[in-house]
């Protein structure tokens, strides 16, 4: 799925130019990439040509990709965290008896009892390992980048490892600065910003990145500040 919008040279409409010259001269200003082989997922967020952002996410065989004008985004980035500690607890509950059976197994000489204890060790350790896997899959920390007025969570960047968080923080700080600079350099009014965001969201709905229902709700929110 791809989202690209055609705009004129001086008109702000929330999209990205797709003329041949623009694509030929495309310059990457900054990029954040993340790969997770366990989840079979890759993510790329790119700031390019000074005023635009491209988001691409691949998961299994599905790819979502779209580009937007930075002026349609809010410079206030949200932080969300969901660490599933209950899966760690479930893992401990499985590992404790599993290790207990393993200790008994090491001192057992009876073949039948050895087989029974071996099966118990295998089951408990397997369940404990699966619980740890669920902890990794379900837990996340993420930055959420929303649109300026509709506050739609357009970009979600999830990570778990600390070193990824440090890289992401530096990228997000640069992104926030570029969003503010984009609006200031163009001298866009509030009315122009709102109209551009509506046009961008309409294209997103046409490309099925967001639902038609949300587009209508967002449009109403942008101009009335009410849902």
How would you concisely characterize the structure shown here?
This protein has helices at residues 20-24, 85-106, 111-138, 162-186, 190-206, 212-224, and strands at 2-3, 28-36, 41-48, 52-59, 62-69, 78-82, 140-146, 153-159. With 227 residues, it is an alpha+beta fold.
What keyword list fits this structure?
3-stranded antiparallel β-sheet; 227 residues; disordered N terminus; 8 strands; 5-stranded mixed β-sheet; alpha+beta
Please describe what this structure looks like:
This protein has 227 residues and is of the alpha+beta class. The chain is built from six helices and eight strands. The strands form two sheets. It has a five-stranded mixed β-sheet. A three-stranded antiparallel β-sheet has the order 6-7-8. The longest helix is centred in the middle third of the chain and has 28 residues. The N terminus is likely disordered.
SSE layout and pairing:
Layout (H helix, E strand, L loop, with lengths): L1 E2 L16 H5 L3 E9 L4 E8 L3 E8 L2 E8 L8 E5 L2 H22 L4 H28 L1 E7 L6 E7 L2 H25 L3 H17 L5 H13 L3
Parallel strand pairs: 1-5
Antiparallel strand pairs: 2-3, 3-4, 4-5, 6-7, 7-8
Q: What structural class is derived from the secondary structure elements?
A: alpha+beta
The description of the largest β-sheet is: 5 strands, mixed
Assign a percent range to the helix content: 40-55%
Topology as a string of helices (H) and strands (E): EHEEEEEHHEEHHH
Number of strands: 8
Strand order of the largest sheet: 1-5-4-3-2
